[in-house]
Amino acid sequence: MSDTRILSWNVNGIRAVYKKGFIEWFLREKPDIVCIQETKAWEEQLVEELRKPEGYFSYFAEAERKGYSGVALYTRVEPLQVRTGFGNDRFGAEGRTLAADFGDFMLYNVYFPNGKASKERLQYKMDFYDAFLDHVKELQQKGRKMVVCGDVNTAHREIDLTRPKENENVSGFLPEERTWIDRLLQVGFTDTFRIFNDQPGQYTWWDMKTRARDRNIGWRIDYFFVSDNLTEAVRSARILSDVQGSDHCPIDIELSL
Q: Which of 109, 128, 192, 223 could form a disulfide with 98 if both were Cys (CB 3.0 to 4.6 A apart)?
């Protein structure tokens, strides 16, 4: 049995967080796998140590539009295969998904859409949700073990945000968005953080404009889900709320495989 620590973080711009000491923090933490969301950059725009951190293989999914969306994957162990997207061409243009096959498990690093901008974007988000759920259900039927991590852009339950009543009609806490997480759990996934922590006040995103982080007025919208056939391998799941540099903080899990 070997321990694998996986870290996930929406950095709200990888070049911006680089200037705030990201690489130094990364190499000090030494995780086995790092999943980054909202890179807001093409690989060609990154400095060498972001493209290829020492000791890591690196992979990038880029949006067609510069300065928008994007995810990155850094891993000590080279995956058997890495691909962008999840088989649905409609959602490929925004660079929101990297899927890596590590043999023992499939890892999905996903920056799920935000639905706040318009009704059209909310519909896009819900369509993305449904297509992704269909995809992982297919893999489940084949018995694959899966880790799904990233910025889901939805708080699941009232415990997962400071002001649930005030946000009932806001995208990110709409009934249909929350129901999608219910469906993901019902088909056989586990919200790893809630295995270990059932307390309120545990958030991963805070509004920067109102300095909400200083008062811990936040939302838990970043997750590690694992398929139920992998749940027993989860040794820990944490929110690293002390780590600065973005409006989100990192989260991590440790697996014994």
A: 109
Q: Count how many domains the chain has.
A: 1
Structural domain that includes position 80: 3-256
Residues in the chain: 257
Does the global pTM surpass 0.90?
yes
* Residue 151 annotated as catalytic: yes
Choose the catalytic residue: 3, 101, 151, 214.
151
Q: Compute φ and ψ for 8, nearest 5 degrees.
A: -130, 140
DSSP state of 89: G
59 contact partners, CB below 8 Å, separation of at least 6: 72, 73, 82, 98, 100
pLDDT in tens, the chain (257 residues): 589 999 999 999 999 999 999 999 999 999 999 999 999 999 999 999 999 999 999 999 999 999 999 999 999 999 999 999 998 778 989 999 999 999 999 999 999 999 998 999 999 999 999 999 999 999 999 999 999 999 999 999 999 999 999 999 999 999 999 999 999 999 999 999 999 999 999 999 999 889 999 999 999 999 999 999 999 999 999 999 999 999 999 999 999 99
